[in-house]
Design brief:
about 700 residues, mainly beta, 22-stranded antiparallel beta barrel
């Protein structure tokens, strides 16, 4: 059978099969479908051996796995890439929505102003987020789903790389199962001075969005500048199945982003960035709906960052490339809470300021041996307050904040990663040593300091077994140092009341991965099998106490667990105009200590899309699906956002069309959830959007 005839058939089999797979019983069905996934895909890649190889066509260059540019085909790790052209075509409302299109990512949403990426079963502070090579995670990132991804405006992102099953050696703490690496817009250098800009507007039916954006660029031989400013108004989200608005869910946002690059000399480039995202009155939907709150919202959610980065390149083998950066990030979260019939308004405010210093040196010891070595240092200062305001007499009672006020958190690392390009073999190995110090002041206990350290390693090997075909295997250890959210949080978090815990140790992961990549002129597939063993996990343990009607939980390093699964993704150019993509992921998570499923494990999920691109027209249709998930932990069943019987499976269809009238004017139309399915991503506190139409217009000048 010829590949051009076989592949559309194989994609059709996937779509036809998986649209009904959640009807299969859990005990038998998942194993059957996983077996089908493995058997079909171990066969289909080898049909394409006779194609003429053109690895640059579909094999993206990646940097996350090795901290240097390398062909994805040669990387001994699983890396999913989302390029700028894909980001622009997709035109997502928010960054979490954009990430849901990356193979291996499952997005949970507590509210419209949130969205947390699950990478191989873990999320929150157990998955590391990087922006422009600098840690986005700070010491207050919460366990489980959170809203931080929504602080990154999708229109400033030029590329996303998802490194799965590794990352602690490359980037440090929190990368237990992977790293999501964001690259922002990069100003260009041009021989002639050029100035350009773009005005954009975005609107959705039923008042779900009205946004405006301005983008401006300037470039010359030695200077490049890009600026983006946006104002966004999001209305309450319409639920599928004709069930009306989910109220309250809407909020307002404004963003600005500026980056400048200056060529200082032949060897050195200086880069500077300023970015702010501010959101106001962001409701926590399930709290209002399920917990008798009149008001429960992020009154202010603000994120600011800035950095200066110097990059130098030399012919010296020891100092081939030098990168040094200083950064500051500030995260402000103001919360307002008031129960129905209560005369007390609670106002909480957390402000975290993070100073960072990074230095990285790239060396080229020989044509086949290169290395990256460096240090990083981050220092968090935390201000946290809480006030109860009596609305009857306007009296104010000051209380301890969610975190100890004026707390501090320092972490520093030293690392060295080595790369060996040995003909058909690519070997990557590295070490990182990490130390951190948490300082928690208390009016009663005085100053408590908690220290911890970790040493982690990585080893990956890729073997080119034929032109455009690579087998790879890797193992790596990961860690997550207990952060301020673990050590010092006091108060209501989700459905529980948490107490501080000062005797916590780092969490550890041991990752194993085996995969195959096939990259041909018009064809790419990757299949990965993985297992992650987790130890010393910090677990929330329910006590017999209740505070403010919420059960009290303590945190302890008592859990041991494992994650195992498989991921497949593929794309095929059916013709010069038509291409198809598909992906599917499955992860099985089990707590060995508790002998029950791990919390919030995503179900079997994936998608299929068919695209047509010709001249000025681009049309894309996609099917997204998720199986039912009834493997629930005790914590899942106690979570009021989740059905104690499990989350039903679902499948939705979206269609998008982009048209360029000329070099200045273009429009985009998106029809979402055409079947008007009422569905919910597993673990979420809000249902997905119902049938709706979203439109964008761009005017370039």
């Amino acid at each position: 059978m010829k590949i051009k005839n076989f592949l559309p058939f194989s994609f059709f089999v996937y779509v036809l099969s998986f649209t009904n797979f959640w009807k299969v019983s859990k005990a038998k069905g998942h194993k059957k479908w996983l077996l089908l996934l493995l058997s079909v895909n171990w066969f289909t890649p080898f049909v394409g051996f006779g194609q003429k190889n053109n690895p640059d066509t579909l094999a993206n260059v990646v940097v996350s796995a090795s901290r240097q540019q390398i062909s994805n085909l040669k990387t001994p790790y699983s890396v999913s890439v989302f390029q700028q052209k894909d980001i622009e075509k997709l035109a997502s409302r928010a960054t979490p929505d954009m990430l849901s299109n990356i193979p291996g990512v499952f997005i949970q949403k507590t509210n419209l102003g949130g969205g947390s990426a699950f990478v191989r079963g873990l999320t929150g502070n157990q998955t590391l987020l990087i922006i422009d090579g600098i840690r986005f995670n700070n010491s207050t990132f919460r366990y489980g789903p959170n809203q931080y991804l929504n602080n990154i405006d999708p229109s400033i992102i030029s590329k996303v790389e998802l490194l799965k099953g590794s990352g602690s050696v490359q980037y440090g703490s929190d990368a237990l199962t992977g790293v999501v690496n964001f690259f922002t817009l990069q100003p260009e250098f041009t021989a002639q001075k050029t100035f350009g800009g773009q005005l954009s507007a975005r609107i959705a039916t039923q008042g779900m969005e009205l946004s405006e954006q301005l983008k401006m660029t300037y470039s010359s031989a030695n200077t490049g500048i890009v600026f983006v400013g946006a104002n966004k108004q999001f209305g309450d989200i319409v639920r599928g199945g004709g069930l009306g608005l989910q109220r309250p869910t809407g909020y307002n946002e404004w963003d600005y982003f500026g980056k400048i690059r200056q060529q200082l000399s032949k060897a050195w480039v200086l880069e500077g960035l300023l970015q702010t995202t501010q959101q106001s009155q962001v409701p926590v939907f399930h709290k209002v709906q399920l917990e008798n709150f009149k008001i429960n919202e992020m009154d202010l959610q603000k994120y600011q960052r800035g950095y200066l980065k110097a990059i130098g390149r030399y012919e010296n083998p020891i100092f081939r490339k030098i990168e040094f950066s200083v950064s500051q990030q500030t995260s402000i979260e103001q919360r307002k809470l008031q129960k129905n019939a209560s005369t007390t308004l609670r106002a909480e405010r957390d402000e975290i300021t993070t100073m960072g210093i990074l230095a990285d040196v790239q060396s080229q010891f020989s044509p086949s041996w290169s290395a990256h070595s460096g240090i990083d240092y981050f220092n968090d200062r935390i201000n946290s307050t809480r006030e109860d305001i009596n609305l009857t007499n306007n009296s104010i009672k000051s209380l301890r904040g969610l975190y100890p006020n004026d707390a501090g958190y320092q972490y520093q690392s030293i690392y060295s990663i080595h790369h060996f390009d040995l003909d058909a073999w690519q070997v990557e190995t590295g070490l990182r040593f990490h130390q951190n110090l948490a300082s928690l002041p208390d009016t009663t206990l005085g100053l408590t300091q908690v220290k911890s350290s970790a040493l982690v390693y990585s080893l990956g090997v890729a073997r080119a077994i034929s032109q455009g075909i690579s087998l790879y295997a890797n193992t790596s250890s990961g860690f997550r140092a207990p952060n301020m959210d673990d050590l010092g949080s006091l108060g209501i978090v989700d459905f529980r009341y948490e107490l501080p815990a000062f005797d916590l140790k780092p969490e550890y992961s041991q990752n194993y991965e085996l995969g195959i990549k096939i990259s041909k002129a018009k064809f790419f597939q990757e299949l990965t099998l993985f297992q992650t063993e987790l130890e010393n996990l910090i677990t929330r343990i329910k006590t017999s106490q209740f505070i403010q009607s919420y059960p009290v939980y303590e945190k302890r390093n008592v859990d041991k667990a494992f994650l195992r699964g498989a991921e497949w993704s593929g794309r095929y150019e059916l013709s010069n105009s038509v291409s198809a993509k598909a992906n599917i992921s499955y992860v099985y998570g089990q707590s060995v200590t508790l002998n029950e499923p791990m919390r919030r494990i995503p179900p079997l999920h994936g998608g299929f899309s068919l695209s047509y691109a010709r001249k000025n027209l681009f049309v894309n249709s996609e099917l997204l699906f998720a199986a039912a998930q009834d493997r629930l932990s005790a914590g899942d069943k106690a979570d009021n956002r989740m059905n104690p019987l499990g989350t039903p499976g679902w499948a939705i269809i979206n269609v998008q069309a982009n048209y360029h009238f000329n070099s200045h004017l273009s429009i985009s139309l998106q029809a979402q959830n055409i079947g008007d399915v009422d569905y919910r991503m597993h673990g979420s506190g809000i249902n997905g959007v119902g049938r709706s139409l979203w439109g964008q217009i761009h005017l370039k000048f």
